[in-house]
Write a structure and sequence with these properties.
The protein is an alpha/beta fold and about 325 residues long. The chain contains 10 helices and 16 strands.
């Protein structure tokens, strides 16, 4: 009966959240469809757009130019002094940790593709990086090719793994015989197509990448749904101080058999579970890292943060507000 009651409590506090198992990172976020909170750490304008934390901020992000991550970074930091595109998320985070950049912007989760697992892994392994903000960006995937190319010419489609997954339904209908080729980013795919100058190769990328790399748009909105969005975390080497924030994220390192007890303890602290993603811990079967995001509309108090952080297997990764680009 005790186990039954505990299971019922988990279901009630988790709501529609999927508890991913066996390292599949299949967690589902309420933010995949809409953001409840449309402000950032700094004050915002009446339009809901974010104002910057530092007017002279230096920001590293997953490049090259033309990625959705660049768009998220420019939205959150419209007056940044320096924008530094990087080849990998690890490089962007390293800039923050060694002081080259004030902030890093990394993709975290997509409506259709779920958690961006390798980027979540990059965050997990950093004990001194803090999530201090979030951007939610609408994603409109666009098929593009070299000038003069047509859809019937395409035999290979290049994109980031997320772009490939998000366009799967459309490609099955319109490009059933085309093969896919994964690139480090959607912009890298567009850049590659421009370099190859081959009418049989196309990229799926952000609409702006077409003009940036001199490509023609062959089809718009090739993602599965117009509700497609991606969440991006803003990282800093400094933990935000002061006011109560509506969101917080933790990492729990434990066996799968322990996570239900941790969820109950978090629920008992008075906050609501928002997302739960699991990643293999790597030392033994059945042991995982769990990325746990929580919220409180009235703001998460320091007492609540301390209570959750006092759970032996849990560490605080960040506290923040979220801004959504419409």
């Amino acid at each position: 009966m005790k186990n039954l009651n505990k299971t019922l409590l988990i279901l009630l506090c988790a709501g529609s959240i999927g508890l991913a198992g066996c390292g599949n990172s299949a967690g589902v976020s309420k933010d995949s469809m809409a953001a409840k909170d449309s402000t950032t750490i700094a004050d915002t304008s009446d339009s809901g757009e974010s104002s910057i934390l530092m007017a002279d901020a230096s920001v590293s992000y997953l490049g090259p130019a033309g990625t959705y991550t660049e768009e998220a970074a420019m939205f959150f930091f419209p007056e940044a002094k320096t924008m530094m595109p990087k080849g990998t998320v690890d490089e962007a985070i390293a800039d923050v940790m060694n002081g080259t950049a004030d902030y890093a912007v990394i993709p975290q989760e997509n409506t259709l593709g779920g958690a961006v697992t390798n980027y979540v892994d990059a965050l997990i392994k950093q004990n001194d990086a803090f999530v201090i903000g979030e951007v939610i960006l609408p994603i409109s995937q666009t098929l593009m090719g070299v000038p003069g190319a047509a859809i019937e010419d395409i035999k290979t489609v290049c994109s980031h793994a997320q772009g490939i997954k998000q366009s799967e339904t459309w490609r099955k209908e319109h490009l059933p015989h085309a093969v896919t080729e994964e690139k480090a980013s959607t912009a890298a795919a567009a850049e590659y197509v421009a370099e190859q100058q081959d009418k049989s190769i196309a990229a799926i990328a952000a609409p702006g990448a077409a003009a940036l790399y001199g490509l023609d748009v062959l089809a718009e909105n090739v993602q599965i749904t117009d509700a497609n969005k991606t969440r991006f975390y803003i990282l800093s080497a400094k933990e935000p101080q002061g006011e109560e924030f509506p969101r917080a994220v933790f990492v729990a390192t434990c066996k799968a058999s322990r996570i239900d007890d941790i969820i109950v303890e978090i629920h008992d602290s008075g906050v609501e579970l928002v997302t739960l993603h699991d990643r293999p811990e790597g030392s033994e079967l059945g042991s995982y890292y769990y990325v746990i995001e929580v919220e409180s509309e009235g703001g998460i108090t320091q007492e609540q943060l301390d209570r959750i952080s006092d759970i032996e297997e849990v560490r605080l990764v960040g506290k923040f507000r979220s801004v959504e680009k419409k």
